[in-house]
Amino acid sequence: MRDKEKKRPEWTPKGQHDGFTTSVMGGIHSSHDGFHNDHAEKKAVHKRKKLKLQDYIKGVLESDRTIMARAITLVESNSVKHRTMADELIKALLPKSGHSVRIGITGMPGAGKSTFIEALGNLLCDHDHKVAVLAVDPSSSLTKGSILGDKTRMEKLSTRSEAFIRPSPSGGVLGGVARKSRETMIICEAAGFDVILVETVGVGQSEITVRSMVDFFLLLTITGAGDELQGMKKGIMELADAILINKADGDNKKQAETTKSEFNRILHYLQPVTPGWHTKAYTCSSVTGSGIGDIWKVIEAFLKHTKNTGYFEERRHTQAIDWMKDMIEQYLKKIFYEDKEVKELFEAVQASVKTGKITPATGAQKLIQAFEGNIE
Ligand SMILES: Nc1nc2c(ncn2[C@@H]2O[C@H](COP(=O)(O)OP(=O)(O)O)[C@@H](O)[C@H]2O)c(=O)[nH]1
Ligand SMILES: [Mg+2]
């Protein structure tokens, strides 16, 4: 492989480097989702021919991994040409999507999210579920799809035919990453995956974004870090449907139980994020597997509860509206900053604001006027 090609998934069409933004790290050899798999590679070469909309739809509905991967690459593309086809694809798949439970998993780097996903994912696959793992990581445009590094932590899961693991799209801004991840979720659901696990790094804004995409939001944390409770932002605890203290094994077990009680004490005073549901703390070990089955039972109880109260549907409807608004906002931002008049003025206005020659409000007004003058 040439150097330039190396950082691209092999399903990326040749010569589409600007349009396709997905990049992968090298060195993963044993996956089945079209990354570095001899069989998939041969298939991909065979299918590298341009796919028509109908080919995408049929392939995804048949759960064809190569086509799924290419469909995801299509929705991740930033090119206008691909966008039109991607929109039609999502529109066609939407009625076939939604039949899943969407679970967000957040936590500090090192908390054990990927290891937990390996443990839970395998358990679910053993029980006839089909599990898709996605990542929302706005920083991954720098680290080039960090979840692929995580694939080493999902060693077994990444080789299973019931699982599909997709690295984080490098969308630059969080909004872009979120849109792509939502659409990827639709593709996975239409392909028959009934559990979607979305891993996100605990860095503030991305948690709020992932919360707005999922049914159940799990905060993974660990004990023994000293002042993790003080350090833990209350805001994040308030977003969670469960707090799971991972690494409750070996010498750590007793301390994990203490931490659990401390969390439960605090949670008692917080407003639950899901009406009628009491967010509680639990312990588990992603290495020994203890507590993993129990947290799945909690998730099942949550689903039963929210489906009974109607909140499950209500939240999904609210999320659909939020999704629409997000897309509008992104579109408006894009046409504003890409506007010819705005672009021409931008540097000068920015310099004037910087030196204090004009106020930020005046600067904004000037640019907006230029924009509005242009579209009239
Ligand atoms: N003892 C123990 N170690 C764990 C457990 N879960 C994860 N780890 C270790 O913690 C480190 C970070 O795990 P990783 O899954 O990459 O964390 P992430 O950054 O949150 O995805 C790795 O060395 C794991 O082996 C656990 O339940 N018990
Ligand atoms: Mg990870």
What does this structure look like?
With 376 residues, this protein is an alpha/beta fold. Helix content is 52%, strand content 10%. It has helices spanning 3-6, 38-47, 53-61, 65-76, 80-93, 113-126, 140-143, 146-150, 174-190, 205-211, 228-231, 234-237, 253-267, 292-309, 311-337, 340-354, 360-375, and strands at 101-107, 131-136, 163-165, 195-201, 216-222, 242-246, 280-283. It is globular, with a radius of gyration of 22 Å. The relative contact order is 0.09. Magnesium ion binds at residues 113-114, 150, 199.
Question: What's this entry about, in short?
Answer:
By secondary structure, the protein is an alpha/beta fold.
Note the run of SSEs as H and E: HHHHHEHEHHEHEHEHHEHEHHHH
Q: At CATH's second level, what is the architecture of the domain at 314-375?
A: Orthogonal Bundle
Bound molecules: guanosine-5'-diphosphate, magnesium ion
- CATH top level of the domain at 314-375 is Mainly Alpha
Strand content: 5-15%
Radius of gyration equals 22 Å
Oligomeric assembly: single chain
pLDDT averaged over residues: 83
Shape: globular
Number of strands: 7
Distance between the termini: 50 Å
Helix segment count? 17
The CATH homologous superfamily name of the domain at 314-375 equals Signal transduction histidine kinase, dimerisation/phosphotransfer (DHp) domain
Helical content stands at: 40-55%
**Biggest β-sheet: strands ordered side by side in the sheet:** 3-2-4-1-5-6-7
CATH topology title of the domain at 314-375 = Helix Hairpins
Instruction: Give me the secondary-structure category.
Output: alpha/beta
